[in-house]
Amino acid sequence: MPELPEVDALVTFLRPRIVGDFVTRTDIGELSILKTADPPLEALNGLEITGVSRVGKSLIVAFDGLELVCRFARAGWLVWHELVPTGPVRMGKGPLALRLHLASGAGFDISEAGTKKNAAASLVADRSEVPAIANAGPDALSIDAAEFTATLAGSTARIKTVLEDQSLISGIGNAYSDEILHTAQLSPFATANGVDAPSLLDTIREVLGHAREALIDLPPAKVKAAKKRGFRVHGRTGKTCPVCGSTIAEVSYADQSLQYCPGCQTGGKKLSDRRMDRLLK
After folding, report:
1. CATH number reported for the structural domain that contains residue 229 in this entry
2. 8, 44, 91, 133: least surrounded by Cβ within 10 Å?
3. Where is the Formamidopyrimidine-DNA glycosylase catalytic domain (predicted)?
């Protein structure tokens, strides 16, 4: 799932390439991506792109009087075309969900791999009409220490859960919460109100800042691979921790998993993994 650093990389890539250009055609390859019907996507035809920005994990393309809010979910991403294909798009065939053609000849797709189609595109007069935007908490890179401290102090949830709650802090997902907690040497199961909030906030800024710097000048096609190369624990179950040499462990859930280092984060102890325990019985 694209998180704050990857979406920031998209914004930086797209802004000089599409702002000032005009939409000439819109194609839909997956009807489920559209979460709004009025105005229709075709309303973009002929409009000038006036801006590109990010809120949390959402990409927002602005036009005169309209905004296209794109949320990538787990398997969605943006595909850039220097010369956009002009052939007809077949509905429901392949990963292509939405395509914008520009007057310059360039364009971009929103694509989504796999059979679960959770990516979303909303065309609205104002971004606040999209619940994910209206309910978004402070940005992970701009939340101040007092607000972050209050957020943690008021929660008895696990710290990983709090970091991923977009209504509390926006921009962090499963991958970077793993990386942040590893760098902070905190168990993902630690209770939020028992965590040193100022220290953790410094780590959030450090991890996200470094990730953003590593991705910011890359084209979209290279961002995902570069993101994975920067991980120390996420997606590295069974491999060696680069900090302490312990074996990276995992806790599995129905729809995702988390990775952590027992040596760095849990005093050498493995966290309970009920799903895996049941499989091994």
Report:
1. 1.10.8.50
2. 91
3. 2-149
Lowest mean pLDDT among 185-189, 238-242, 254-258: 254-258
Q: What domain range is 33 assigned to?
A: 4-134
| H or E segment to which residue 104 belongs | none
Q: Residue 47's pLDDT is what?
A: 98
Statement to judge: residues 114 and 232 lie in one domain: no
Q: What is the DSSP letter of 276?
A: H
* Region at 179 (left for phi over 0; alpha for psi -120 to 50; beta for the rest): alpha
Listed in sequence order, the residues at least 6 apart from 53 whose beta carbon sits closer than 8 Å to its beta carbon are 11, 60, 62
Give a yes or no: residue 140 inside a domain: no
Q: Is residue 168 part of a domain?
A: yes
CA distances from 165 to 52, 103, 114, 135, 174 (A): 24, 39, 25, 11, 10
What's the domain count of the chain? Answer: 2
CA distance 110 to 19: 18
* Distance between CA atoms of residues 235 and 257, nearest Å: 9
| Strand ranges in the chain using DSSP code E only, listed in sequence order | 23-28, 49-55, 58-63, 67-71, 76-81, 96-102, 107-112, 120-124, 249-252, 257-260
Domain boundary among 77, 111, 134: 134
Q: Are 155 and 69 in contact (CB under 8 A)?
A: no
Beta-bridge partners for 52:
61
Query: Which pLDDT tens digit goes with each residue over 166-214?
Result: 999 999 999 999 999 999 999 999 999 999 999 999 999 999 999 999 9
Q: Is residue 139 part of a domain?
A: no
Amino acid at 145: A
